[in-house]
Design brief:
Layout: H1 14-17, E1 23-29, H2 35-56, E2 63-69, H3 72-85, E3 92-98, H4 99-107, H5 115-125, H6 133-146, H7 171-192, H8 197-206, E4 213-218, H9 226-234, E5 236-246, E6 271-274, H10 282-292, E7 317-320, H11 323-334, E8 344-348, H12 356-364, E9 370-371, E10 385-389, H13 390-393, E11 398-403, H14 420-433, E12 436-444, E13 462-465
Parallel strand pairs: 1-5, 1-6, 2-3, 2-4, 4-5, 7-12, 7-13, 8-10, 8-11, 9-10, 11-12
Helix pairs in contact: 2-3, 4-8, 5-7, 8-9, 10-14, 11-12
């Protein structure tokens, strides 16, 4: 599968990478601005900086580098890119991992609760409170991931960072969530001798391991929990360089925290915002922008700016027809794409079985494809057609993006203003659209279009009835 080639730094990136030093660096910017690329370009300079530091102090130990991503697919992609920056050196050790794998390797905890069992137990304890099921699971994760158990009382009154305002969670409801759901859930885990992913973060906070990193890069930081950031911070050497890459406009998980509460002080001289969009065309940026307007983003979020794009391209398309008709249309189109030079991604909110028809049609038409969802290694073959979920597409980029079957049945949400699930869906679709470098095509059933499509400006796409 095609991956980014080694690219020279831009004029905007040069000041960030040319002054390696200890301390915290924050890189913000909208999708396509090169945040991740900038952080990876820093690797070469930073590794040399810390090698010289070792030599001055007669320290024979290798420079330890940790690069963390949120999901396994992005980990495989970034690992491929990171190796371009770090040449083989016996005194440089680099670990590119997801937080989950890194924490599991360090703690050696194996008995992690299955997500389906976790959801089943939370729903069981929800009988009295009766919160919407998906919201319930997200809110429990939000509470447990933001607060250390000793400080969980703060959840009762603190502002819910990174969340919509509905369903409303008044103090009395929050107290019931803790007492009726979280406490029984933790008791259940203890009785069954199982742990969840937040427990691994707490283990690394409470009992740090011996390894300390000279360089830490955390990509997609907006989707790390507060406890995960605290765990990473506990494993930083003193001194060290920590680089956080983020854009809250692309936040797709129910996390929220402030820099202050995770114990990180930002230096204004090491806080950067990349303005130029090197990925998207003006037309792609125009399509995505309305999805983010009106959302609370804070200073860590950046809405796509049309003036930051330098290329024009094809106008995005919205196909209206049965799913099989959508597949037939785009496969006919893909046959005219040079797949030796350009990449194609079919992206879906759910993926998995939802790609059944598409898999059959691609195979029937002699189009080889790879499935990227939750893959820990980036495919090394020459197949440039990918099937992937929206969540796994985070941080990646492709020449052509197809989002078919965008129907209301798979993008359900609440109807109140500020509904959390609605805001998350808007961010998710905007993030997916901006994975594209050249073209974007959406598709829906005429009698069940996703309400997300109502957010788009009708003059930003061609409406095609199949």
């Amino acid at each position: 599968m095609k991956v980014l080639v080694d690219v020279p730094p831009t004029a905007e990136q040069l000041p960030i990478i040319s002054n390696p030093q200890a301390g915290v660096t924050v890189i913000r910017g909208a999708a396509g601005s090169g945040k991740t690329t900038t952080a990876l370009l820093m690797l070469k300079q930073l590794s040399e900086f810390w090698l010289r530091h070792r030599e001055r102090n007669d320290n024979p130990n290798p420079v330890q580098i940790l690069v963390l991503t949120y999901n396994r697919t992005l980990r495989g992609y970034i690992s491929h890119l990171a190796q371009q920056q770090i040449t083989t050196h016996s005194r440089v050790k680099i670990n590119v991992s997801t937080f989950g794998k890194w924490s599991k390797d360090l703690t050696r905890i194996e008995n992690i609760i299955d997500y389906r069992l976790q959801k089943e137990k939370l729903i069981e304890f929800n009988e009295g409170l009766r919160l919407p099921e998906d919201f319930l699971c997200d809110e429990v994760e939000y509470c447990m991931g933001r607060f250390h158990p000793d400080d969980r009382g703060k959840y009762l009154s603190i502002k819910r960072e990174g969340r919509g305002i509905t369903p409303r969670m008044e103090q009395a409801t929050r107290e019931r969530l803790v007492n009726e759901i979280i406490v029984p859930y933790e008791k259940f885990k203890q009785e069954e001798a199982i742990r969840d992913w937040n427990d691994l973060a707490l283990e690394l906070i409470n009992s740090p391991k011996n390894i300390r990193y000279d360089i830490i890069i955390a990509d997609e930081t907006q989707d790390f929990s507060a406890n995960q950031i605290r765990a990473v911070k506990q494993h930083a050497a003193d001194p060290c360089t920590m680089v956080f890459v983020l854009d809250k406009a692309q936040q797709i998980y129910p996390r929220g925290w402030t820099w202050r509460e995770v114990g990180i002080t930002l230096n204004p001289n090491r806080s950067f915002r990349l303005e130029e969009n090197h990925r998207n065309t003006i037309e792609i940026c125009r399509l995505a922008k309305p999805l983010l307007e009106g959302l609370e983003l804070s200073d860590d979020g950046t809405i796509p700016d049309l003036d930051s794009c330098f290329r024009n391209g094809s106008k995005p398309k919205l196909l209206r027809g049965r799913y099989s008709e959508q597949c037939t249309y785009v496969i006919s189109e893909i046959k005219h794409i040079n797949l030796d030079e350009e990449s194609v991604a079919f992206v879906h909110p759910k993926a998995g079985g939802w790609f059944k028809t598409l898999r059959t049609d691609l195979t029937k038409n002699g189009l080889n494809f790879v499935e990227l969802t939750r893959q820990s290694e980036w495919p090394q073959g020459h197949d440039n057609v990918a099937l992937i979920s929206m969540h796994s597409a985070k941080g990646l980029e492709f020449d052509h993006i197809y989002i078919l079957g965008l129907n209301e049945e798979i993008t359900q949400h609440g109807d109140e203003d500020g509904d959390t699930s609605w805001e998350n869906l808007r961010r998710l679709l905007a993030m997916t659209i901006t994975r594209a470098r050249m073209t974007v095509t959406l598709g829906c059933k005429p009698d069940d279009p996703s309400s997300l499509l109502d957010c788009l400006a009708t003059d930003t796409y061609n409406d095609i009835v199949l």
